[in-house]
Automatic annotation (TrEMBL):
Annotated InterPro entries: DUF742 (IPR007995)
Protein name in the entry: Multi-component regulatory system-4
Organism: Streptomyces griseoruber
Alphabetized Pfam families for the sequence: DUF742 (PF05331)
Region (Disordered): 1-22
UniProt feature, compositional bias: Low complexity: 7-22
Length: 149
């Protein structure tokens, strides 16, 4: 206004501009995997890697870190110590299937070593109980532990 007064009445605040609020949305999973739902090795075998599959970076993977995409770089860097697919997905906040596809790709070029656990051990009820207890021991975003059964 010409006289320096606000166009809003007394006590009124101007409306915020319309648009997104908060952080920008994450990249869609299908963009990270170029639309693929199976990695190089999985396409040949027809089986997805179980979530408990352990991944370990190879020397070739560590040497290639500077040439990898962001997600591949993060996976290989995280796998300097053995990590399960589930742990990597949670740690990097990536969709589980994205980690599977990228891990298969990295394995096929020798940048990750993959160790699938013995299926007899993974179906043991005591292992499942320890996993559940371990998950309950992780505090939520407020630092509060989950209730147990």
């Amino acid at each position: 206004m010409a006289d320096g007064q606000s166009p809003h009445g007394p006590g009124e605040e101007p409306l915020a501009p319309a648009g997104p609020v908060g952080p920008a949305p994450a990249v869609r999973p299908f963009l990270v995997t170029a639309g693929r739902v199976a990695g190089a090795g999985e396409a040949a075998s027809g089986r997805a890697m179980p979530v408990e599959t352990q991944l370990v970076a190879t020397t070739e993977g560590i040497d290639a870190l500077g040439r990898l995409s962001f997600e591949q770089h993060d996976i290989v860097a995280a796998c300097r110590v053995p990590q399960s697919i589930a742990e990597i997905a949670a740690r990097l906040r990536l969709h589980l299937n994205v980690v599977r596809v990228l891990a298969e790709d990295l394995r096929s070029v020798g940048q990750l070593s993959v160790h699938v656990p013995d299926s007899g051990v993974t179906h043991d009820a005591s292992v499942l109980r320890r996993v559940i207890d371990g998950l309950r021991a992780i505090p939520d975003s407020r630092g509060v532990l989950r209730d147990s059964d």
